[in-house]
Amino acid sequence: QVQLAESGGGLVQAGGSLRLSCAASGGTFRIYAMGWFRQAPGKEREFLAQTTWSGGRTSYADSVKGRFTVSRDNAKNMGYLQMASLKPEDTAVYYCAVTYRPTYEYGTWGQGTQVTVST
Hints:
Layout: E1 3-7, E2 10-13, E3 18-25, E4 31-39, E5 46-52, E6 58-60, E7 68-73, E8 78-83, E9 92-100, E10 106-109, E11 113-118
Parallel strand pairs: 2-11
Antiparallel strand pairs: 1-3, 3-8, 4-5, 4-9, 5-6, 7-8, 9-10, 9-11
């Protein structure tokens, strides 16, 4: 079973940048894609971005397109979410998750990392 651990969250001023990391371990050969989500207090969990694990094909939510960049380093079993031009409304707990063949559903989640953007 794959395990995921996010890191890199913290407090940043509006307009600043952060890079979140997601370390994957255990059976990573099974991963099809890694995605990033966030959940703000009182709001639904929101999909942000995804990259396929082997081919690096990416997709983004409109809310972050052009500001966030998703990537992965297969050799290190790491995924990344580079966030730029951060806004106070980006404040949330950020999660990475992975999908597996053949269901392609997000089946494993990290514990989350808090990102707080101040004005």
